[in-house]
Structures are given as structure tokens and as C-alpha cells.
Design brief:
Layout: H1 10-30, H2 43-56, H3 60-73, H4 80-94, H5 97-113, H6 120-132, H7 143-158, H8 165-194, H9 197-210, H10 217-230, H11 234-247, H12 254-265
Length: 267
């Protein structure tokens, strides 16, 4: 005997499934409060405030829904530029590869729509940070690190007086260090694994030339000096040992550098 709710035909079965999906969707929608309650005064301000509340609680999807409604529905609102940035920030907050791409798109659209806005510097900074968030460890591909550095440099060029500059410089330094660490790793591979000292010397010198502010340059000084000593270029090694001791007296490499330098100076 056929159950009264059991479909008896393939087409009926398909309709039955579609009906269940529709009913489930309707039930879910019915349980969700509308973004904009009926009769809301200053609707754009309400949407912006709610978006800010949700993003403060890291409810990225809900925040984006409020901001989107404002951006799409209230083109003349004074809150629209900030809501556009809010959409981008909600993507950045999700912290995954796909959301970073979407964030960059939103920040670039903001700069296209509002190139002279007082928060244009913020948008450019966050474009850089979208790439920054995808940087990989020094032993992996550094494409995103390079992209982040390009965008940081655009920020410095366009917004040199921005109040965000000190904060941006911290992230910029971290990205520069990441790229320099990647180059140092190549030099160490030549030095330790291949014992190809000309290659190590070239790589370490490149790091010092490209990034004189590298925070771990004490290790570069040490291994560059060692590579030169092992290549019988003792006179060229001395200045790097001296720089290590002067710039990084507390470095883990300092005792050995002092021993090496004393040995060279007493010859």
C-alpha cells in the first residue's frame, strides 16, 4: 500500500524533493529578522550602526549583509563610503584565501569610487594587508610577500603624511624580513649543503644591499664573513665581523665573531 505522502512517479518524486527544499528555505527565512524593520527612521544610519555592531563581534556575514544593504540601497547616504569599507573589512576578517581576494576587490572599488576620500589611505593599507595575510613561510613561494611590499610602497608614495604610517611601517618591516629570510635560506643552503661559497657570498651580499634594515642581519654578517674566510678572502671578511660586533653586541654570533676577528687582527 502506498503511503499517502509517498510519491509514486519519478516526476512526482522530484517535485516532492523541491517542495521540501522550498519549505525548509521558507522556514529558515521566516525565522530570520529583517535587516531593516518596517518604519525605521534614518534607515541608512540604522544599517550602518548594525553593521558596525556585527563587525565588532566578528559576525562577518551579518555585518556584510547590513553594509551591502546600505551600499546598494542608499547611494546618497553619507555613510555609504564607510559601509563600502565595512564590506571589504568583513571579507578581510574571514581570513581565508578566497575572502582576501574579495577584500582586495572591494578596497580597489572604494579607491575607484572615492579616490580623494579621507579614508583612501586606509583602503590602500588594507589592500597591502590582504596580500600580507597570504604570505607564506620563508622556505615557500614569496609571491604574496612581494605583492604586499608593492602595495605598502604605493601607500608610502601616495599617503606619506597618513596617521596610519607608523602602523603600516611595522607590517612593511615584517614583510621585508620575510623576503630577506627567504634569500638568506638560499645562501645557507649554498653554505651548508653545497659548500659553494661564491654562491653564498653573492646571496648574502644581495640581502644586505636590498634590505639594509633586515632585523636579522647579524646572521648575514656572520655567514658572509665565514664564507669569505673559507674562500681565503680574509681581508674582506673583517669589516663584516666588525659590523656584527658593533651593531649586535648581544647577538648569538657575537662571541664567535669576536674570536674570528681577534684571530685576524693578530696575524
Amino acid at each position: 500500500m502506498t503511503h499517502p505522502f509517498e510519491p509514486t512517479h519519478p516526476r512526482s518524486a522530484r517535485h516532492f524533493v523541491l517542495l521540501l527544499v522550498a519549505l525548509t528555505f521558507a522556514a529558515g527565512c521566516g525565522g530570520r529578522k529583517p535587516l531593516l524593520p518596517e518604519g525605521t527612521v534614518e534607515a541608512d544610519k540604522y544599517l550602518f550602526t548594525r553593521g558596525n555592531e556585527e563587525i565588532a563581534d566578528k559576525n562577518w556575514t551579518d555585518a556584510r549583509a547590513y553594509y551591502r544593504r546600505l551600499v546598494d540601497g542608499y547611494p546618497q547616504s553619507p555613510h555609504r563610503p564607510d559601509a563600502k569599507l565595512g564590506v571589504a573589512d568583513s571579507y578581510l576578517g574571514e581570513n581565508n584565501v578566497e575572502s582576501f581576494v574579495l577584500a582586495v576587490n572591494e578596497y580597489r572599488e572604494f579607491l575607484s569610487f572615492y579616490p580623494t576620500h579621507t579614508r583612501a589611505d586606509y583602503a590602500q593599507y588594507k589592500i597591502a594587508m590582504s596580500h600580507f595575510g597570504k604570505m607564506r613561510s620563508p622556505d615557500r613561494d614569496q609571491t604574496e610577500t612581494r605583492e604586499a611590499l608593492v602595495e605598502f610602497e604605493v601607500f608610502f608614495e601616495r599617503y606619506s603624511t597618513s596617521a596610519l604610517t607608523p602602523e603600516v611601517r611595522i607590517s612593511y618591516r615584517e614583510a621585508k624580513d620575510r623576503l630577506s629570510h627567504a634569500s638568506v635560506n638560499v645562501g645557507l643552503f649554498y653554505f651548508k649543503s653545497r659548500r659553494w661559497y661564491p654562491g653564498a657570498i653573492a646571496r648574502f651580499r644581495e640581502v644586505l644591499a636590498d634590505d639594509p634594515g633586515f632585523t636579522a642581519r647579524d646572521s648575514v654578517y656572520y655567514y658572509l664573513a665565514e664564507s669569505l674566510l673559507l674562500s681565503k678572502k680574509n681581508a674582506e671578511a673583517v669589516p663584516y665581523l666588525d659590523r656584527l660586533l658593533n651593531e649586535f653586541p648581544d647577538s648569538e654570533w657575537a662571541p664567535e665573531a669576536k674570536r674570528r676577528l681577534d684571530a685576524e687582527l693578530t696575524h
